[in-house]
Amino acid sequence: SPVLQAARGYARPVAKKRKDMPSHLDDLPPTLLKKDYANLPVMSSVDDVVKRVLSLEMASQKEKMKVKIQQLVEKVRRSPNDNGSFEVQGKLKKGRIRTLEEHLQKHPKDKRNRRFMLMDMDRRRKMLSYLRRVNFSTFEKTCRELQIQYSPPQPYARHVTKRWLVKKAFCIKVFQEKQKLKAAVRLRQRRERQARARAAREQQE
């Protein structure tokens, strides 16, 4: 009938259901306790229902992220109190960047979290660049542990214009003239010192 045809024309197409993307938090066991309750001695004597409530089975994404980052940091920590070494900072940034990447795959229009991800990646790049200059062996070890391939930034290339070339030539000419004036002053000062030293020798003789 015409009514059904009009209804079919206004009907919305069925949206395709997105497949669940694999997450780096999937390998966490659901029976593992949250970070704040893992080391409490009271947890050995509490009820199973309480343990289930305080486990990762009912934890949020943020709480799972804390446990995952703690596991990553424990692998590279130099000492129990090490919280600021390059390896630890790299693992912290790796966990945050990986979480934001997975979030942006599901929500590609989230500009706020994309900005946070790019900021973390830029900080990690600067940290690796400094570590590459200071200690290359630690730099290689950190890149191997983080499973990333570091590529140094491209050298800055300025767009050459006629105005820039004229300005550069003028600056070079001013610099050369200034060096000539300094050379003349230095020559005069050296001759004055030589004259004073000669006069002092003649007085001693």
Plain-language structure description:
The protein has 205 residues and is an all-alpha fold. It has two domains: 21-146, no CATH class; 160-204. It contains seven helices and no strands. The chain has helices at 2-10, 48-53, 61-76, 86-106, 111-134, 136-146, 162-204. The mean pLDDT is 81.
Oligomer: single chain
Segments where pLDDT lies below 50 for 5+ residues?
A: none
Domain unit count:
2
Overall pLDDT confidence: 81
Q: Please describe the biggest sheet, giving its number of strands, its sense, and whether it closes into a barrel.
A: none
Instruction: State the end-to-end CA separation.
Output: 132 Å
Determine Rg (CA atoms, Å): 34 Å
Helix content: 55-70%
Helix vs. strand class: mainly alpha
- If helices are DSSP runs of H or I spanning 4 or more residues, what is the number of helices? 7
The number of strands is 0
What is the string of SSEs from the N terminus onward?
Answer: HHHHHHH
- Overall morphology: elongated
Work out the strand percent. under 5%
